[in-house]
Amino acid sequence: MTERLVALVPAAGIGRRMGAAKPKQYLPLGDNCILGETLARLLAHPLISEVVVALAEDDPYFSDLSQASHPRLRTVVGGEERADSVLACLDAVNPDISPWVLVHDAARPLVRADDIALLITEAQRGTGAILAVPVVDTVKWSGDGQHIEETVPRQHLWRALTPQCFPTALLRQALAEALAEGASITDEASAIERLGLAVALVKGNSDNIKITEPADLPLARWLMSQQE
Description:
Elements: E1 5-11, E2 28-29, E3 32-33, H1 34-43, E4 48-55, E5 73-77, H2 82-91, E6 100-103, H3 113-123, E7 129-134, E8 139-141, E9 150-152, E10 158-167, H4 168-180, H5 188-193, E11 200-203, H6 216-227
Parallel strand pairs: 1-4, 1-6, 4-5, 7-11
Antiparallel strand pairs: 2-3, 6-10, 7-10, 8-9
Helix pairs in contact: 2-4
């Protein structure tokens, strides 16, 4: 039986690559902003009991979101790195009450409800799972960043997406140990992998893009129109 769980959203970054006047998560997307659309989808999901968002300490924008006063949403102060913000969110979750969490990028506003449901179901059959898509491009390896040294076989390669879903206490342990040891943690799965545990891959939809650069925003608007 699928257990309800808490969604964690690290949103303390500023998105320098977007080159905008405000953090990218507050740029407009449809009738909402990027973060607003992300939160709306998470809060509407029947398997998510609560959403915890990690914000920059001096964030002046969040209070303007319509979701800011939602009764099932809480905020915490995030950290300098993603892992610090996720850990801050985890500190606000009681694992005895909410034994599972899923972590979702603030800048992935197009995640589908069916993908979330499938991810949660598959994750709770083991020690966790992530949404991912198989790599379809030819992949090249370059040591100097200028010349091809090798063509990497792509049949076993996947692009990691979010959400990523894990037991609350396990993820907290994994992130705390990784940060204490100075490990580079780019997603939650990498912290779990360091413990030698298996993480399941759940194939998601390729329209679950992360808005990172200016060209991603009009693409996201078009993809959202296609979903609608």
